[in-house]
Amino acid sequence: MMYKLLKTSGKVRRGEFKTPHGTIQTPVFMNVGTLAAIKGAVSSMDLKEIECQVELSNTYHLHLRPGDKVINKLGGIHEFMNWDRPILTDSGGFQVFSLASMRKIKEEGVYFNSHIDGRKIFMGPEESMQIQSNLASTIAMAFDECIPNPSSREYVEASVDRTTRWLTRCKNELDRLNSLECTINKKQMLFGINQGGVYEDIRIEHAKTISKLDLDGYAIGGLAVGESHEDMYRIIDSVVPHLPQDKPIYLMGVGLPKNILEAVERGVDFFDCVLPARNGRHGHVFTKSGKINIMNAKFELDKSPIDEGCDCPTCKHYTRAYIRHLFKAKEMLAMRLCVLHNLYFYNKLMEEIRDSIDGDYFSDYKKQKLTEWGEV
């Protein structure tokens, strides 16, 4: 079996997921490198130093530049970015619906204009699979529609039905591509995506339907798009029991450390979010006592690290005062140091979560962290 449950406690799951590029210990946070790089001048070697297990890149963006066929000619995304661990590629669906202008959704796929130069592009399930096969990522995400929030029940039902049909087409096309002699990664995996907005019954029915396809993993999409945290948790609670329990479950685009703890408690295994890197580039850094803005005047003479006791490359060598100076001087190093710290914070958080599940104290660990962060 690719996914092995090592321990459970209520809905909380501790597992390992075997892939063609290594075994992933779950729960896991995937570090987001949209264009095959983490924004903030963080390299693949840096990712190893900060204990990243999985890197996530984006199909839509890499298709536009440098082009998936270019990356394929260069040996695939692992060789291209010098990363030998697992890579998950987003299907491009979210970007098509959030960035592209003049999009037109039809049964065959989506017609849209590039957000870079306005050129006309078509992407459907087959095209998304072809692009991701060219990239040769470890895990490909199915092409779906990320439903706007709020949306009417009528619109959501029609969209989910179409996403289900698209998922079947994705599976058939990836099976075909994996059988070709010229394919770089013939063991590329496929995760399907559950949609349904904030309608529990639609979500549950969709989860039951896509579970029958026996995919490598399942994601919960269309959350963290404007709904309340209470609605997000309600949907996770309703969906997770209806997804295969012998496959990894991925909550897309989430999020804050407290969201991760809540979702782990509800049975989620995989997470990703641009938030830690984006926050770091603006001087907002995570600590064991909560988030701070390193550019605040009170840190001008602060000779302590960002977070006392942190073993990240930034905290081991630099002070808050120095990093604040770098931001004020508009030095690129400021962003790099804070992004490194934030990603390490997230990767370490997941390691601590795994340890707490192994040691049967996750509930106490969660309460302790929320108290420390002032989130109680």
From TrEMBL:
InterPro entries: ArchSynthase1/Queuine_TRR, TGT, TGT-like_sf, tRNA_ribo_trans-like
EC number of this enzyme: 2.4.2.29
Taxonomic source organism: Clostridium putrefaciens
Swiss-Prot/TrEMBL GO biological process terms: tRNA queuosine(34) biosynthetic process
Gene Ontology CC terms: cytosol
A molecular function (GO) term: metal ion binding
Residues annotated for substrate binding in this entry: D90, S91, G92, G93, F94, D144, Q195, G222
Gene assigned in the entry: tgt
Cofactors that this protein relies on: Zn(2+)
Record domain tRNA-guanine(15) transglycosylase-like: where: 12-373
Positions of the catalytic residues: D90, D272
Keyword Metal-binding applies: yes
Keywords of this entry: Glycosyltransferase, Metal-binding, Queuosine biosynthesis, Transferase, tRNA processing, Zinc
Subunit structure: Homodimer. Within each dimer, one monomer is responsible for RNA recognition and catalysis, while the other monomer binds to the replacement base PreQ1.
Protein's UniProt name: Queuine tRNA-ribosyltransferase
Pathway connected to this protein: tRNA modification; tRNA-queuosine biosynthesis
Record family assignment: Belongs to the queuine tRNA-ribosyltransferase family.
Cofactor binding note: Binds 1 zinc ion per subunit.
Catalytic activity: 7-aminomethyl-7-carbaguanine + guanosine(34) in tRNA = 7-aminomethyl-7-carbaguanosine(34) in tRNA + guanine
Binding, Zn(2+): C310, C312, C315, H341
